[in-house]
Amino acid sequence: PYNPWNSSFYSGGSSSGSAVAVALGICPIAVGFDGGGSIRIPSALSGIYGLATTFGRIPFEGVASSTMIKAGPMAVSTADAALGYAVMAQEMPTAHFYRQLYGKSAVYPL
Hints:
With 110 residues, the protein is α+β, with helices and mostly antiparallel strands. Helices cover 29% and strands 13% of the residues. It has helices at residues 16-23, 40-46, 78-88, 97-102; strands at residues 29-34, 49-50, 70-75. A three-stranded antiparallel β-sheet has the order 1-3-2. The chain is elongated and about 50 Å long. It starts with 15 loop residues before the first helix and ends in an 8-residue tail after the last helix. The relative contact order is 0.17. The model has no long low-confidence stretch (mean pLDDT 84).
């Protein structure tokens, strides 16, 4: 799709449709998939916020799932991106680094 602010500019990589939809106000939060900048680049070029999470933090299955691709929220504000992240993310695994350091009460920092 075209860049939401100037149709003569590029809107980014494979998650550009999600970024443009958020930037135009079609939806408040969208999911992007990032294997090499496909959340970060379209978000930056569309003037929104995108969070490329750590691998496996937001679960998804299918042909695209691998250790190379991660899912993450795209939103108009950092507060909306944090909300999307909190809703999409699964519980922290018991073997995670923070749990090993701080015990069972440890939470992932946003």
